Amino acid sequence: MARKWVYLFKEGDAGMRELLGGKGANLAEMTKIGLPVPQGFTITTEACTQYYEDGKTINDEIREQIDAHILKMEEITGKKFGDHENPLLVSVRSGARASMPGMMDTILNLGLNEDVVRVLAEKSNNPRWAWDCYRRFIQMYSDVVMEVGKKYFEELIDEMKAKKGVTQDVDLTAEDLHELAEQFKAEYKSKIGSDFPSDPKEQLYGAIMAVFRSWDNPRANVYRRDNDIPYSWGTAVNVQSMAFGNMGDDCGTGVAFTRDPGTGAKGLFGEFLTNAQGEDVVAGVRTPMHINEMEQKFPEAFKQFTEVCQILEKHYRDMQDMEFTVEHGKLYMLQTRNGKRTAQAALKIACDLVDEGMRTEEEAVAMIDPRNLDTLLHPQFDQKALKAATPLGKGLGASPGAACGKVVFTADDAEVWAARGEKVILVRLETSPEDITGMKVAQGILTVRGGMTSHAAVVARGMGTCCVSGLGDIVMDEANKKFTLGGKTFHEGDFISLDGSTGNVYDGVIPTVDASIAGEFGRIMAWADKYRKLAVRTNADTPQDAKKARELGAEGIGLCRTEHMFFDPERIFAFREMIVSDTKEEREEALEKILPYQQGDFEALYEALEGNPVTIRFLDPPLHEFVPQEEEEIEKLAKAKNKSVQEIKDIITSLHEFNPMMGHRGLRLAVTYPEIAVMQTKAVIRAAINVQKKHPDWKMNPEIMIPLTSEVKEFNVVKKVVVETADEEIKKAGVNLAYQVGTMVEIPRACLTADEIAKNADFFCFGTNDLTQMTFGFSRDDAGKFLNAYYDNKIFESDPFAKLDQVGVGKLMKMAIELGKPVNPHLHVGICGEHGGDPSSVEFCHDIGLDYVSCSPFRVPVARLAAAQAQIKNPRK
Ligand code: ADP
Ligand code: MG
Ligand code: MG
C-alpha cells in the first residue's frame, strides 16, 4: 500500500500536527467539531521531506494523490478548477508543526485566468470583485512562486491610485483593477520572460513546490535556529477553497484573539476590515477597525464568531488566535491556533486558566516558554521619569517592554549598528518577513503603519522585543533616513525611547529600573519550584551578581571564577609581581598581598548567599592573560621587582603559548605553582571560618573546585595541597568546618576516567564550554568563522556552545555520571557552562540525573521553569 500523502480536512484532527502541520491539523479539528471551515486538503510534512529526498521534485505517487484530492474537493464544493460555469478558486497555505513566520506567504484566488475571471465577473454581477481577486492572485503568485519582488506591483498600484486620485485600494474600480491585472501580467512577462501561467493545475503545482521550497529559505533557517525547530520536520501544504471577504461591504476579514496577547486580559481582542481579503489586515494596507465594531456591521456573524471563540477556547483550553472571513454576512473560520503572547500575557493566562478550572498547576507551568521569561527580567522604565516625560506621539502598544536606542531605518543598518555594539530602534513604515534579522537585534521596533496584528507586532511579541506599531503621525522619509514626529525631526543615530505597553514614543533616553519577580510571575515560579527536582544555582563572581541571583531564586553558587577578582588595579600589580618572580619565596610574598583581598571577596560572597552552597573555582586562565601590555606598566613592574625592562619583556614573551586554550592553565598552574592553590585555599577557609562565627546558624561548607582535571593523579597532587592547607587553617582556628574538594569536568579524558576521579573528588561540575570545545576540537572563540557555513550545509542546526550537543558531549556527561556515582555515593554533580541556562539543555541535565544546573543570574528563572517542565514531562524520583 502506498503511503498516504494527502488528507482531506475531514480526515484529520488536532492530534495529527506532526503530519499535517499546525494549520492543517487545526483546520481538520475545526471541521470535526462542526465549525464553518471552507473545505480542502492537506499535503503532509512527509511529502515535503520526500520532495527534498527526491531532489526537489514531487514524485508520481504524491502527484496522483494530489490529483485525486482535487477531484474530491471538486465533488465536495460542487465547483471545478478552470470551469466556465462554476470555477473553483483555492488558497495555498504553508503550515509547519510549529508556526513559523519566516516562511512562505499565502497565495489566494488560485485557479483564475483570463477566461475564468470573465466568467466570475459576469456570473456574480460583481466585476470589481472578480478583477480584484485576479490582480491579487497575479501579484501573490509572481512574488511568492516566481520571486518577482513585491515592490514592482506595489509601485504599479500606487501609480494607479495617483492617476485616479484615490488613496485606498478599495476606491479603485473594476476597470482600474482590470487594467492593473494587465499591467501585472506585463510586468511578470518582462521579469520572467514567459506568459503568466493560465492552467490552474500548473498554478497549483507551482504553488505547492514554492511552499516546499520555502522550508529551506534563509529566513526560515534563521527562524528555526532561533526557535529550536529541526530542519527534518518539513512543512505541510494546505489547499483550501476560498471564502471571499472582498465581495462588497457585507464582507470582510479579520484576526482575533480570545484574550489580549499583550497583557493576557480576558476578552476579545482583534481587528477587522470590510471589503478586504487575506493579508490586508496584517499588512497594514488600511488601518483596521477594532473587532467590537464588527458587532454593528455584522451582528449575525459577530454573534456566531463570539460563540466560536468560546467553543475553541474551551476545546483547546488555551488562548486562541483566529483568522476568519465574512462572505455576504456568513462567517468562515480559516485558522485557529494557540496564540503567541508576550511573556507577561503568558503568565497571566496560565494563572487565569488555573483559576478558571481549565488547567492544572502542572499544565500551567508546562505552558510557559522559558525562553520568553528573559524579557520580563529586563529593565522597565523608571515610572517617575516616565511620568515626567512628554510623549512625542502615541501608537499602538504592540509588544510590551521598555526600549531606548538610536534610530535606524533599515533592517540591514540595524544589524550593522548592533554588531558594533550600538543599541538601535528600528523605525519602518511597516515591516515584512525580510526584516526579521534586523528586528532581532533591535531594542525596539517602531512602525508607521499596521495594527496590533501586523507583521511587526506578531513577530515582536514572539521575540519578546518591544514594539510600537501604527504610529500614523510620523511623517516618514525613508529615502533620506529621517522622520518627523511631534514637531521634531529625527535622523539616523538620534536617541528615542519606546514604551511597548502604552505605545508612547519619547525623545531621548528615559532611565530604566531592574525588573522583579512578583505577581503572576512569582506564582508560576512557586509552582515550578514545587514540581522540579533539579536544583538551580548561579554563576556569580561578585556579591552583587550573587545577590541578584538570590532574588531570582538561585539556591547557591555553582561557579565563582576567582580570576576575575585579580583585575582590580591594586591586586593585578601584586599578581604580576608574582608572575615575574624567580623563586617560590618571592611568589609567596606577592601572593601574601593578594590573600586579604581574596578572603574579603569570599566573605562578601558567603554573606550574600546566606549559608547556601558556594563553589569556588581556583585560578583557571593562562598567566599571559594577566601580564601588562603598556610600556609604562612594564616599567613600573620592572622597578618594583628590581629587574630591567628587557628582563620583564623576556618573561612576558616566554609566557606566549601557541594554543593557550590547551596550554599552561587550570590545575596545571597549581601543579607548577602550588603556592597559588595554598593562597586560594587559605582565603576560602579563613573567610568561611569568619562568616561561620558571625552566623552560627548557617552551615558553612565551602566547595573548592579544581579546574581542568584530565588525570586523577594531577587532581590528587593539587587536592593534597588544598587539604593540608585547609586542615592546618581549621586546626589553627580551633573550629570545626566542613569543606569539599571537587573538580570541573571539562576535558573528555576526565569523563572517560570519571570512576578514578570520583573516588577522590567530592563533586563534579561539567564545564560544558570547555568540554564542548575539547570534544569537537574547535575553539569557541574561532567557531564563528565557520559556523555559518556549517548551518548552510546542514551540518549544525544550532550553535553547540549555546545548545548542548546531546549526542556527543552529552554522551560524555552521561558516561561520567554512570562511572562516577557508583564509586562515590556522595558525589554531587552539576553543570556550569552557558548551557546551564538553556531550556533544552536543562531538560537533558534533568534526564541524565544531574543534581543541579548553574547559570548566569538572569537565566535562573529560565532554568527553574525548564527544570520543572522536565520533571513534569519525565518524572524522576
Ligand atoms: P499565515 O500563516 O501567514 O497567517 P495563512 O495561510 O493563514 O498565512 O493565510 C493568510 C490569510 O489569507 C488568512 O488569514 C486569510 O485571511 C487568508 N486566507 C487563507 N486562505 C483563505 C481562504 N481559503 N479563503 C479566504 N481567505 C483565506
Ligand atoms: Mg494565518
Ligand atoms: Mg573551563
Q: Based on the structure given, which CATH architecture of the largest domain is correct?
A: Alpha-Beta Barrel
Oligomer: single chain
Level of helix content? 40-55%
User: How many DSSP E strands?
Assistant: 31
Q: Please name the CATH topology of the largest domain.
A: TIM Barrel
N- and C-termini, Cα separation: 45 Å
Radius of gyration: 32 Å
Structure class: alpha/beta
CATH homologous superfamily classification of the largest domain: Phosphoenolpyruvate-binding domains
Major beta sheet summary? 8 strands, mixed
Low-confidence stretches: none
Bound molecules: adenosine-5'-diphosphate, magnesium ion
> How many DSSP H or I helices?
35
- How many structurally independent domains? 4
Which of globular, elongated, flat, extended, rod-shaped describes the shape? elongated
Mean pLDDT: 93
Identify the strand order in the major beta sheet: 12-22-21-14-15-16-17-13
- Quote the beta fraction: 15-25%
CATH class of the largest domain: Alpha Beta
Cofactor: Mg(2+)
EC number: 2.7.9.1
Protein name: Pyruvate, phosphate dikinase
Catalytic activity: pyruvate + phosphate + ATP = phosphoenolpyruvate + AMP + diphosphate + H(+)
Would you mind describing this structure in some detail?
With 877 residues, this protein is an alpha/beta fold. The protein has 4 domains: 236 residues, Dna Ligase, domain 1, CATH 3.30.1490; 87 residues, D-amino Acid Aminotransferase, Chain A, domain 1; 135 residues, Phosphohistidine domain (Glucose Oxidase, domain 1, 3-Layer(bba) Sandwich); 308 residues, TIM Barrel. The chain is 47% helix and 17% strand. An 8-stranded mixed beta sheet has the order 12-22-21-14-15-16-17-13. Strands 24-25-26-27-28-29-30-31 form an 8-stranded parallel barrel, surrounded by 6 helices. Strands 1-2-5-3-4 form a 5-stranded antiparallel beta sheet. α34 links the parallel β30 and β31. The longest helix has 26 residues. The relative contact order is 0.06. The site of one magnesium ion has 2 residues, from loops.
